[in-house]
Specification:
The structure holds 2 protein chains of 2 kinds. By secondary structure, chain A is mainly α. Chain A has one domain: Orthogonal Bundle (MetI-like fold), CATH 1.10.3720.10. Helix content of chain A is 74%, strand content 0%. In chain A, helix 3 (25-42) crosses helix 12 and helix 7 crosses helix 8. By secondary structure, chain B is mainly alpha-helical. The radius of gyration of chain B is 24 Å and the shape is globular. Mean pLDDT of chain B is 80; it is low at 1-22. Chain B has 2 domains: 16-93, no CATH class; 107-354, MetI-like fold (Orthogonal Bundle), CATH 1.10.3720.10. Classes of the chains: A mainly alpha, B mainly alpha. At the A-B interface, helix 6, helix 7, helix 8, helix 10 and helix 11 of A face helix 1, helix 2, helix 7, helix 8 and helix 10 of B.
Chain lengths: 308, 355
């Protein structure tokens, strides 16, 4: 099986991908994706970003293997050690290994990002496409609601939600999701407006496709590329807000090794034991830089209008 | 069709709070009222509908049922929801945000007291951001695709990616604790605090009014670090937008004409191109100013800056909902106000937008 596959594909894969006359829709799509990838791969900064994001995923999956110690195991005899051979990034005020805590902290960061995106992006997409597709009062009402949410600075609104819901990681995620969807609705609506009067939509309608079918099958795909760019760029912001909430003690609660909370815990030792706060802060910075670099590169590939 | 595309492209670059930018003034006012109404509705819902029992918060969980019922009635919580909302809105329109449990003063008085500190911080930060961001953006645009451009781009991306609370801590550690170049947290040295009468509430101006230069420089050394850290974010944004506006202008034909006429490159860049960029930049600057109110929450916590952000957060940690929601409304209203202002300014400054 492997032999036949390799004989079929290996020599022919590149011409198959770059063919001017694709034989199937699948081949055309793969070809498009390949060209996009080539363009993205040219952008060195975007590749760095992709590397960071992939490492984050890997670290999250392999945390139990990678972490040398239990992130929650306190050992007061080893409290606040400076970085050394046993503890590369030192230990914190309870003698926990900071490297292990940072590695496990990646799980929370990725979880926040994933859950917020899974909840906020579809909501924004749906609101935006429905508003743009139907127009009229539906549009007015939905966009007014969107405007109202846009009228709050994100962190402040998230703070108010957390205040009402109570501190905790789940509530922080919910609060961030509630503040994240409006820009997606805006983008989806703008894209919908540009395609809703196109011939292909009329053609599909003549074939008897329902409104739901049109929105989900024919309009939503057109919005995806802009949305992916925006979501990737926003992920950095989500990480920063989640870390900010954690720092304020409103997100993940101790002893969870969440990066923002770890920076906060290290505040009192800042002068003499700088590493306690510094290391998790650098982790937040690197990961959010990764998403920013990747999003910036993706924008150049997927959304030529947005570029300079 | 074309107009949709164009307004869409426009919208990418400008404040998008008011979708009726092409519409009339009445439409703008209508939009403003709806948005403000929504602001109140959202805060009301956060305060009343979400699962924290305000009665329980006031009487404690060991109060007898009779007391609980009486307090509930006094707080108007047995009325239907729409009636509660009506009372809430009319109270707020009269400037009654309720009392803060924490300070036991009216929330509005508290906010009036703390707001100038935030305003001062955000203003100084914006000045720094504009003063550095515009030249950086111009510089990047002129050297497009070469190393200065990449440098500015990376500098900006780093700014967008930096957790502000961490940057603040690092700044404090390096410039205050290790090097001693700037003063520490707070708006003045503790020793000086009682010397100053809050006239405007803006420390830099109050100290000048008193004519005490020692106090003034003390205030400067306190504000410079938090303002610079806050400024990094608006700086990154302003530089990026300046770059993209400048590139758009530098590709225009009048630039070519000016070059053909033999006008010096410096003059073309700084007078001809930048002159045309200033109008859209006003919107960008206004928007980043409003965003600094948000960034200031974490900065104020780090630098013990007695402003609105610190007020909201402290109230939040004590579950003082009146104060939290009052602060949220004020920040939201300022945000809306600044957006509206930038919209109006844009119309005033750009004759093409008036059509």
């Amino acid at each position: 099986m492997t032999q036949t596959t390799s004989r079929l594909f290996k020599p022919g894969l590149r011409p198959w991908l770059t063919s001017d006359t694709p034989q199937s829709r699948f081949q055309a799509r793969c070809g498009r994706a390949w060209m996009g990838w080539l363009k993205l791969a040219e952008n060195r900064l975007a590749m760095v970003g992709l590397g960071i994001v992939l490492s984050l995923v890997l670290v999250t999956l392999l945390a139990p293997v990678l972490a040398p110690y239990d992130p929650l195991a306190a050992d007061l005899t080893k409290r606040i050690q400076s970085p050394n051979a046993q503890h590369w990034f030192g230990t914190d005020q309870l003698g926990r290994d900071i490297l292990s805590r940072v590695i496990y902290g990646a799980q929370y960061t990725l979880m926040v990002v994933a859950l917020v995106v899974i909840t906020a992006a579809p909501v924004g997409l749906l609101v935006g496409t429905i508003a743009g597709f139907f127009g009229g009062w539906v549009d007015s009402v939905l966009m007014r609601i969107t405007d109202i949410f846009l009228a709050f600075p994100k962190l402040i609104l998230a703070l108010a939600f957390v205040a009402a819901l109570g501190p905790g990681l789940e509530n922080a995620i919910l609060a961030i999701a509630l503040t994240a969807w409006p820009p997606y609705a805006r983008i989806a609506r703008a894209e919908t407006l540009t395609v809703r009067k196109s011939d292909y939509i009329y053609a599909a309608r003549l074939q008897g496709v329902s409104n739901t079918g049109l929105i989900l099958g024919h309009i939503t795909p057109m919005c995806l590329s802009s949305l992916v760019v925006r979501v990737t760029l926003d992920m950095a912001g989500m990480i920063l807000i989640a870390a900010g909430l954690g720092f304020l003690g409103l997100g993940a609660q101790p002893p969870m090794p969440e990066w923002g909370a770890m920076v906060s815990e290290g505040r009192q030792f800042l002068l003499e034991q700088w590493w306690v706060s510094t290391v998790p802060g650098i982790a937040i910075f690197i990961v959010s830089l990764g998403f920013n670099l990747l999003g910036d590169g993706l924008r150049d590939v997927l959304d030529p209008r947005g570029g300079d | 069709m074309f107009s949709v595309l164009r307004s869409n492209r426009d919208g990418r670059k400008r404040a998008r709070l008011f979708s009726g930018t092409g519409g009339s003034f009445i439409r703008l006012v209508f939009s403003l009222i709806i948005t403000l109404f929504g602001l109140l509705l959202v805060t009301f819902l956060i305060g009343r509908v979400l699962p924290i029992d305000p009665v329980l918060a006031a009487v404690g969980d060991r109060a007898p049922q009779a007391v609980y019922d009486r307090v509930r009635e006094e707080m108007g919580l047995n009325l239907p929801l729409w009636q509660q909302f009506y009372i809430y809105v009319s109270n707020i329109l009269q400037g009654d945000f309720g009392r803060s449990v924490l300070t036991s003063r009216p929330v509005l008085d508290d906010i009036k007291r703390v707001f100038p500190a935030t305003l001062e911080l955000a203003t100084v930060a914006t000045i720094i951001g504009v003063a550095l961001g515009i030249p950086m953006g111009v510089f990047a645009a002129v050297h497009k695709g070469k190393w200065p451009d990449h440098l500015v781009r990376i500098f900006g991306l780093v700014g967008y990616s930096m957790p502000i609370f961490w940057l603040g801590l690092m700044g404090l550690m390096i410039f205050y604790m290790k090097l001693g170049w700037v003063a520490g947290p707070g708006r003045l040295d503790a020793f000086y605090v009682d010397f100053i009468e809050p006239t405007t509430g803006l420390m830099l101006i109050d100290t000048l009014i008193e004519g005490d230069m020692d106090l003034f420089w003390n205030a400067v050394s306190h504000i410079i670090l938090p303002a610079s850290i806050l400024a990094y974010f608006s700086l990154a944004y302003i530089a990026r937008m300046t770059r993209s506006f400048m590139l758009e202008q530098l590709g225009q034909e009048y630039i070519l004409t000016a070059r053909v006429k033999g006008i010096s490159e410096t003059r073309i860049i700084w007078r001809h191109a930048l002159g045309n960029v200033m109008v859209p930049l006003v919107t960008v600057i206004a928007l980043s100013y409003a965003n600094l109110l948000e960034g200031s929450v974490l900065t104020e916590i780090i630098f013990s800056w007695p402003g609105l952000g610190q007020y909201i957060t402290n109230s939040l940690l004590k579950a003082d909902m009146n104060a939290v929601l009052g602060g949220t409304i004020v920040v939201g209203a300022v945000f809306i106000g600044v957006n509206l202002l930038s919209d109006v300014l844009y119309r005033l400054l750009d004759p093409r937008a008036r059509r």
